[in-house]
Task: inverse folding
């Protein structure tokens, strides 16, 4: 896969100052960047990686020691060092981890899990865009992705985060569509391309002054989906790209 470092650097600059510990700042910084409006009234969706949002990558890890022993531990990658580690292989962990994207102290080390058979550059080259439209109380989400994990199993999640962010950091994750999780799975082809399209019985709630809302796309390295539960973050479930939704009046107005 091609590395899109020029694009990543540009997006990083646009998102500089976005949330580290305050999701209000993130909703303003990343949300405005991620969504716009089409002439037809639909909202444009633009998914980004954590490092594009000036955060620490959460669910894939690098071995900074170069040692062969799994006991040496692996680390999350931050906005300051991701480019230098483009060729570095990435790993899962052996344990489920909590997300804490603005906290450098949560970078690791963590127990090294399975090698994920791709480089950090491959992982961060993922892109996604699409549209959302609310009409008469119902909605439709459509998105297309490139540079995902070839033949990968993916799910899309609708999440909420308190603003400012809680300590410890926490999210409330719901499957997009039916709450059982039977509608949110999709699959990348052999080239890493994928599409997702779903009609929703109800419009999504946008971000507010006390709660930011967003969409996240997770890869399942074990090839398994878990229904209403995302699965073990860092161990088998890896959020690759995401976005913050705008305020409800802009999203559904």
Result:
């Amino acid at each position: 896969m091609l590395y899109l470092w020029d694009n990543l650097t540009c997006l990083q600059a646009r998102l500089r100052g976005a949330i580290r510990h305050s999701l209000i700042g993130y909703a303003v910084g990343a949300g405005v960047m991620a969504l716009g409006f089409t002439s037809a009234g639909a909202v444009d969706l633009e998914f980004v990686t954590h490092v594009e949002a000036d955060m620490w990558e959460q669910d894939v890890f690098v071995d900074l020691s170069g040692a062969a022993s799994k006991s040496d531990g692996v680390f999350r990658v931050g906005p300051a060092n991701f480019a230098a580690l483009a060729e570095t292989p990435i790993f899962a962990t052996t344990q489920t981890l909590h997300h804490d994207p603005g906290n450098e102290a949560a970078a690791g080390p963590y127990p090294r899990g399975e090698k994920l058979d791709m480089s950090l550059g491959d992982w961060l080259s993922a892109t996604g865009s699409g549209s959302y439209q609310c009409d008469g109380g119902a909605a439709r989400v459509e998105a297309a992705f490139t540079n995902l994990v070839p033949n990968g199993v993916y799910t899309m999640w609708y999440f909420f985060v308190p603003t400012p962010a809680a300590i410890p950091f926490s999210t409330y994750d719901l499957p997009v569509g039916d709450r059982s999780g039977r509608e949110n799975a999709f699959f990348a082809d052999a080239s890493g391309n994928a599409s997702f399209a779903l009609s929703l019985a109800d419009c999504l709630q946008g971000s507010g002054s006390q709660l930011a809302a967003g969409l996240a796309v997770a890869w399942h390295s074990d090839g398994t989906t878990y229904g209403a539960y995302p699965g073990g973050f860092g161990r088998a479930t890896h959020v690759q790209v995401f976005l913050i939704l705008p305020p409800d009046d802009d999203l559904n107005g």
User: Anything to note?
Assistant: Residues 16 and 216 are 20 Å apart (CA to CA). The longest strand covers residues 153-162. The chain has four helices and twelve strands. Residues 1-37 have pLDDT under 50 and may be disordered.
